[in-house]
Amino acid sequence: MHLTPDADQIVEMAQSLGANLGREEAEQYRPHLVELLGLVDQFMQSRTVEAPPPMLFPERGRGYRPGFEEDTYRAWLWKCSIGGADTGLLAGKRVSFKDHISVAGIPQVFTSQAMEGFVPDVDATVVTRVLAAGGEVVGKHMMNGFMGDYGLPLNPHNPAHAPGGSSSGSGAALAAGEVDISFGGDQGGSVRLPAAHCGVVGLKPTFGLVSHFGAGFGAEMTVDHIGPMARRVEDVAAALQAVAGYDQLDPRQRREIPDSIDVLSELDGGVKGLRIGLLREGFAEPIQPGVADATMDAVRTLEQAGAEVTWISVPEHAQADAAYQTLVLEGSMALFDAGFFGAGYQGYYPQSTITAVGRLWHDRIDLHPARAKLNLIAAEFVRRTYHGGAYAKAQNARAGFTAAFDAALSEVDVLAMPTTRTVAPRLEPAPADPRQAIEDNLGKNWIVMPGPYNTKPTNYTGHPAIAIPCGKIDGLPTSLQLVGRHFEDGTLLRAAYAFQQAVDWDAFTGVVPAAEPEYAR
Questions:
Q1: Nearest to 75 by CA among 188, 185, 165
Q2: DSSP symbols for 226-259
Q3: I want to staple 172 with a disulfide (CB 3.0 to 4.6 A). Which of 52, 75, 434, 446 is the partner?
């Protein structure tokens, strides 16, 4: 490849940057530009050694894409079998991943047909640690968020309803019993929302506790988390303990990240004396009456087990949306401008993934759904209006929001609220009219939709939060969310386990399949 632009291309490039060059002036620039680009080209053609992270169990088959007859709930993009260590916390467990997490040798499309054929050459750190802990990697799941043009998975509790997103395939496969543990990504609730709607447990860990190396969603990196999901609390706890801890490959981790954690030894410690604060703002209208009732019943169960329950208020919970939206809009665009895994740190960059996603982002922008284009346009308007000041203010304001939650969590040990204020919404067939289809897509913008009202604040503040099945309404699961102090993820898991042991768990999580809607076939 030789980067040798002509004068017209230089004029066009300058104009895109807001600089006006005449053709004659561009001819003056040309030899100097060719020299600069030639050095880059020379480097790209060189055989400079790039040492990738070590890969466990490199002898692995490619697997296959299952057909509809094997994939009842449309949850899987790819199935495989990569065996892990003979012993470990996850020995004998089938483990899967949302498709934004790279598994070397297994196709990764980020749920975009424009990415067909891409196969990453490195494992995400969570994959490496799952294999080291004895887990068997069994595949990759559908996700609705980045592009979503493979359709939407179906909710096993009722296929006429949504499974929640964006880790939708993970939630559906877990609820259907097709996998034991799945790792999703949570940027505004994307682990907890599908956990809530599919009747499984989903944990968004403390920010940075689980390495994000090898995972990329395209959202602002400082709200992005990887978290484990499972049908039972003890599996979520084992998964977290197996993968959590410092990773030199993840530049987002701060120095307080421990090398490892232990959440299993005290999992059955009970909740006697645990102070639970019912968050008033978490029950804000509009809320489905049955959801509020199920949440209150769940908290009463914990109270009967020895917890102390009071009401508490954190007004910032209801005010976080504007700051979160501002941060994510401009932050997402900055991420793609810099490269899919950011820039500015010394470490290993997954080059093949960065190149593949960059090509999709910059060269195939018209393939993006309407809501993604809307957010790009909005982000560019924000950037041109505030020149980076809006992003800076949203980052700087985070400390105040975090302090407000910290203050509440100095009075209680955990905050309690519904994970979502409604059960899973109905799926509707795509409109036939193109204009109506665009309008429908624009109305499903994850940044501003009300569904994540109770989940987005902790993405912004970094506090750990867990979604726990706590009832059903007309066969659809309801979910309790508990929020804890930074690095006290074990307290959330202990409370969740105590609740699991105190109730008829199968009644909350069991699937009684309903008829599949015609348009889902």
A1: 165
A2: EEEEESSHHHHHHHHHHHBS--TT-TT--TT--S
A3: 75
Q: What are phi and psi of 7, to 5 degrees?
A: -65, -40
Catalytic-role residue among 96, 166, 167, 170: 166
* Class of residue 44 by CB neighbours under 10 A (exposed 0-12, middle 13-18, buried 19+): exposed
Q: What H or E segment, with its residue span, contains residue 278? A: strand 275-279
166 as an active site residue: the answer is yes
The rounded distance, in Å, linking the Cα atoms of 198 and 202 is 10
Q: Give strand pairing partners of 95.
A: 137, 181
Residue 162: count other Cβ atoms within 10 Å of its Cβ: 26
CB 147 within 8 A of CB 372: yes
Length of the chain: 521
Catalytic residue among 190, 211, 332, 479: 190
Q: Tell me the per-residue pLDDT of 409-451, one tens digit each, with 9 for 90 and over.
A: 999 999 999 999 999 999 888 888 888 888 887 877 777 778 8
Identity of the residue numbered 124: A
DSSP 491-511: HHHHHHHHHHHHS-HHHHH--
**Candidate list 93, 98, 140, 456, residue with the active-site label:** 98
Q: How many whole angstroms separate alpha carbon 299 and alpha carbon 89? A: 30
Active site residue 93: no
Residue 449 is predicted with a pLDDT of: 79
Contacts (Cβ under 8 Å, ≥6 apart) of 259: 245, 246
Asked if 190 is an active-site residue, the reply is yes
Rounded Cα–Cα distance for residues 237 and 230 (Å): 9
